[in-house]
């Protein structure tokens, strides 16, 4: 009667995950998109839905693409860091409001501040699929030729920004 | 001195719990009546000691004993007394003490109200509950002692988190914990039945009222928490799919499946092993909820300090309790047999399908809640899964569930004839469809989602009316017939009506709510949803431990004033934390909700119009009342009764 042991097996697998989860340090995994051209997109702007932004408009700039949503609790953690970064004027941050109602996204920005140069709205999450987004937040660093140089999954911490992202930004801007 | 007495009481309670967890179970296995009969005195003793410990901690809070670390962290001399008392469970250590104390209370209740049960069964049930108690007391004493001293003592305390200084939070945790802990009774009965190898329907009958009571507490506890979030967090939302909310929602879903499954096992002897598994699962999910909340393993608005040592302890405890129970299940369940036979078209089959849907719903919440953790464990980084996922998986599950919910009480046990049932419900269905199609028109805008929600709600209501009509209608004495129905029948109908009311609330508020965020100067007027909101400025007021800016907003409709609302923005002295106190004008047809969100500079005012939002909590209240009616049924008040053929005769 193997089926009666099944609950036990499932539980032990979950417990193993919980155990690993307890002592966890988030690590980065190479994404298949790294060093590949960023997928094309054309999306309406959050604050001007009749205007659009596409990847072509970004050629010649080094920029960060931050995928966020108003329903994302984790996004609130990294948000102050982006607010600070935007004040320092080092690199433009473009936001992508992912699977979100534009009103909710705007209300969230009113509450938490807006660090973004410009925000596009990916309400259906179509572009997110092209970018391999499976949860938010995710942050991409894209160079002047439109090639993804770095992808950060999950909350960006100060150390990620200082040790990884900003040095790469400097290097890419110098090219 | 008093805190030491509390600490000592906990240690003695642990010792008694150990005895309770070991001696009666050995006694039951070896047929040793002396050991078995030790269970009751040990249960009483344990409760007394836990009560002493709990009172000692409460005392330390009330007299501001800041030489106790936990008190210094969670209280302040200026805190109002009621919040000093509720601050006892305002942090990690005290919550655990509350858990242990309530568990002691449930053990006491089982010991006191089980005189009609076989001694061997009582010994096993109390023994299993004693083992659970051992785990929690050990956890508390080894990693989270609430009585730890702080020397030298602090001059004043750090104050209770202002979010928790609210009447809702005085009762929300105890209610919810009563539910969590209460599922340990059904769990203990199931384990006792597995241990004893007596898998007839009797264990289901015995554990049924206990499970229903735990479910009532849990329903009320979750509802109060949701209501609190609605008026206290200032976002106007009532459910956020936050991991900690999900941690309470999962045992509730399985608990709901369990009370239905127990009914079938008791009445028809069917799906016995499934019911046992649900009983184990409901309590396991309660424990898992504790683990998720207390280990800080997931990010959540309910953030608690993460402590890996605590996490490891609870996880080991989980593995021992749940792992051992599931192994015992795997070993004993094949001998249980499947029980009574039933047709593919029968009330049993409908209930079983609903059980499966509830379990799938639980699994989907479980996956959504733990997905970030799984991804993290596999090295994909931290992320969050939000409402889009939960809403996408939940709605498709609710629809068939509610359709069967309407049919269940009308269908026959063992076998029903589909065309006959369809003929009986045709008018109920037709009227639900008509109402669902027409009603949204009166609300302004017709939308398919609203119509679907209303269809579900009115399907429950019309089938309920049909069921009442079939049972109470016809010739003869109406009152006699009405009295002839069992209280548990009325309880079920009331709880189902609660689901309908809840669905109406959710549907209408999500379909027609309006939100406006504006900057306002004194005298400015905002028009929204037919109302005029005039901002009359702000005055400074002083509370017991905070200062507040109190806004005054008059609301009028068609030139007549309908409400005057006073949203506040508070600044607490000790923590310096700003808090938004929303002002809400509650009405049967909806709420007007005003808050002053965090902002700098001019006054930002947020106005929400929330049609029918209170129906959400009214629905949960009806569900709880239904549960209360069901356990008030007279068969539970009788000490002894013969085999339940009268129950079958009731036709339930």
**Total number of helical segments of chain A?**
5
Radius of gyration of chain B: 26 Å
The residue fraction in helices of chain B comes out at 55-70%
SS element count, helices of chain B: 21
Number of strands of chain A: 7
What best-fitting shape of chain A do the alpha-carbon axes yield?
A: globular
What average pLDDT do the residues of chain A reach? 84
Strand order of the largest sheet of chain A: 5-4-3-6-7
Distance between the termini of chain A: 66 Å
Give me the oligomer status: heterodimer
Instruction: Report the helical percentage of chain A.
Output: 25-40%
What percent of residues of chain A are in strands? Answer: 15-25%
Structural class of chain B: alpha+beta
Largest sheet of chain A: 5 strands, mixed
Shape of chain B: globular
Instruction: Count the E strands of chain B.
Output: 10
User: Distance N terminus to C terminus of chain B?
Assistant: 57 Å
Strand content of chain B: 5-15%
| Computed structural class of chain A | alpha/beta
User: What are the low-pLDDT stretches of chain B, counting only 5+ consecutive residues below 50?
Assistant: 300-305, 639-652
Overall description:
The complex is a heterodimer of chains A (175) and B (652). In chain A, α2 (73-88) links the parallel β3 (63-68) and β4 (93-98). Chain A has 175 residues and is of the alpha/beta class. Chain A has helices spanning 6-22, 73-88, 102-112, 126-130, 158-174, and strands at 42-44, 52-54, 63-68, 93-98, 118-122, 138-142, 148-153. The model of chain A is unreliable at 25-30 (pLDDT under 50). Chain A is globular. Chain A is 38% helix and 19% strand. In chain A, the strands form two sheets. Chain A has a five-stranded mixed beta sheet with strand order 5-4-3-6-7. In chain A, strands 1-2 form a two-stranded antiparallel ribbon. Chain A is built from five helices and seven strands, in the order αβββαβαβαββα. In chain B, α3 runs antiparallel to α6 and α13 runs antiparallel to α14 (387-407). Chain B is globular. Chain B is of the alpha+beta class. Chain B has helices at 2-30, 33-36, 39-62, 69-74, 81-86, 92-112, 119-143, 167-196, 202-232, 243-268, 272-295, 308-336, 347-377, 387-407, 418-442, 448-472, 478-484, 487-512, 614-631, 634-637, 645-649; strands spanning 514-520, 525-528, 531-542, 546-557, 560-565, 568-572, 578-581, 583-587, 590-595, 603-611. In chain B, the strands form two sheets. In chain B, strands 2, 3, 4, 5, 6 and 7 form a six-stranded antiparallel beta sheet that branches. In chain B, strands 1-10-9-8 form a four-stranded antiparallel beta sheet. In chain B, β8 (583-587) and β9 (590-595) form a beta hairpin. The chains are: A alpha/beta (175), B alpha+beta (652). Chains A and B meet through α1, α2 and α3 of A and α11, α12 and α13 of B.
């Amino acid at each position: 009667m193997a089926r009666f042991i099944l609950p036990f097996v499932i539980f032990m697998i979950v417990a193993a995950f919980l155990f690993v989860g307890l002592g966890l340090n988030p690590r980065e995994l190479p994404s298949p998109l790294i060093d590949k051209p960023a997928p094309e997109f054309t999306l309406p702007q959050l604050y001007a839905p009749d205007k659009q932004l596409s990847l072509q408009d970004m050629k010649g700039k080094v920029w960060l693409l931050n995928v966020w949503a108003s329903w994302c609790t984790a996004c609130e953690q990294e948000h102050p860091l982006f607010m600070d970064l935007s004040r320092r004027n080092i690199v433009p941050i473009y936001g992508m409001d992912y699977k979100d109602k534009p009103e909710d996204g705007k209300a969230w920005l009113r509450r938490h501040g807006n660090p973004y140069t410009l925000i596009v709205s990916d309400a259906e999450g179509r572009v997110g699929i092209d970018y391999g987004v499976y949860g938010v937040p995710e942050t991409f660093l894209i160079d002047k030729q439109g090639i993804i140089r770095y992808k950060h999954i999950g909350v960006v911490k100060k150390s990620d920004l200082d040790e990884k992202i900003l040095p790469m930004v400097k290097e890419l801007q110098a090219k | 001195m008093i805190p030491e007495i509390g600490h000592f009481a906990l240690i003695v309670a642990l010792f008694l719990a150990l005895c309770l967890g070991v001696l009666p179970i050995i006694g039951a296995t070896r047929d040793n009546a002396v050991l078995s009969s030790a269970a009751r005195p040990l249960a009483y003793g344990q409760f007394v000691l836990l009560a002493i410990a709990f009172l000692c901690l409460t005392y330390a809070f009330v007299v501001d004993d800041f030489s106790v670390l936990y008190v210094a962290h969670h209280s302040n001399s200026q805190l109002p007394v009621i919040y000093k008392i509720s601050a006892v469970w305002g942090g990690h250590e005290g919550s655990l003490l509350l858990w242990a104390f309530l568990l002691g209370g449930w053990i006491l209740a089982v010991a006191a109200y089980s005189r009609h049960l076989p001694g061997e069964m009582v010994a096993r049930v109390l023994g299993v509950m004693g083992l659970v108690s051992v785990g929690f007391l050990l956890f508390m004493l080894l990693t989270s002692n609430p009585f730890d001293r702080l020397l030298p003592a602090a001059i004043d305390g750090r104050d209770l988190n202002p979010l928790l200084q609210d009447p809702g939070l005085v009762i929300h945790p105890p209610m919810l914990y009563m539910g969590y802990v209460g599922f340990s009774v059904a769990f203990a009965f199931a384990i006792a039945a597995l241990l004893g190898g007596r898998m007839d329907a009797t264990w289901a009958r015995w554990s049924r009222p206990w499970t229903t009571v735990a479910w009532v507490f849990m329903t009320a506890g979750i509802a109060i928490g949701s209501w609190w979030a609605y008026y206290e967090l200032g976002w106007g939302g009532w459910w956020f799919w936050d991991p900690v909310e999900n941690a309470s929602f999962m045992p509730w879903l399985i608990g709901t499946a369990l009370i239905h499954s127990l009914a079938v096992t008791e009445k028809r002897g069917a799906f016995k092993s499934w019911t046992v598994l649900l009983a184990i699962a409901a309590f396991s999910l309660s424990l898992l909820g504790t683990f998720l909340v207390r280990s800080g393993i997931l990010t959540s608005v309910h953030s608690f300090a993460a402590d890996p040592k605590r996490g490891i302890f609870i996880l080991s405890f989980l593995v021992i309790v749940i792992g051992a129970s599931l192994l015992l299940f795997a070993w004993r369940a094949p001998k249980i047999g499947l029980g009574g036979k039933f047709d593919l078209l029968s009330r049993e089959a409908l209930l079983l399908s609903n059980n499966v849907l509830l379990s799938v719903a639980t699994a989907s919440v479980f996956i959504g809640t733990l997905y970030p953790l799984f991804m993290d464990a596999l090295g994909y980084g931290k992320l969050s899964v939000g409402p889009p996922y939960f809403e996408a998986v939940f709605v498709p599950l609710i629809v068939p569930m509610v359709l069967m919910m309407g049919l269940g009480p009308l269908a026959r046990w063992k076998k029903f004839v589909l065309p006959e049932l369809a003929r009986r419900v045709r008018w109920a269905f037709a009227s639900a469809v008509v109402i669902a199609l027409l009603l949204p028109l009166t609300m302004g805008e017709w939308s398919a989602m609203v119509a679907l929600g209303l269809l579900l709600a009115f399907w429950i209501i019309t089938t309920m009316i049909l069921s009442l009509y079939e049972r109470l209608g016809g010739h003869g004495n109406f009152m006699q017939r009405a009295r002839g129905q069992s209280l548990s029948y009325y309880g079920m109908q009331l709880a189902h009506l609660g689901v309908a009311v809840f669905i109406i609330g959710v549907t209408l508020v999500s379909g027609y709510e309006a939100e406006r965020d504006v900057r306002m100067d004194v005298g400015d007027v905002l028009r929204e949803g037919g109302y005029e909101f005039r901002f009359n400025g702000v005055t400074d007021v002083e509370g017991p431990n905070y200062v507040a800016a109190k806004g005054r907003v008059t609301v009028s409709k068609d030139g007549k004033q309908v409400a005057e609302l006073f949203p506040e923005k508070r600044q607490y002295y000790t923590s310096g934390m700003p808090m938004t106190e929303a002002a809400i004008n509650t009405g049967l047809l909806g709420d007007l909700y005003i808050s002053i969100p965090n902002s700098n500079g001019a006054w930002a005012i947020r106005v929400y119009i929330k049609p029918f939002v209170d129906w959400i909590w009214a629905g949960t209240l009806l569900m709880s009342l239904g549960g209360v009616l069901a356990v008030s049924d007279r068969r539970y008040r009788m000490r002894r009764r013969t085999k339940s053929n009268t129950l079958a005769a009731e036709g339930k």
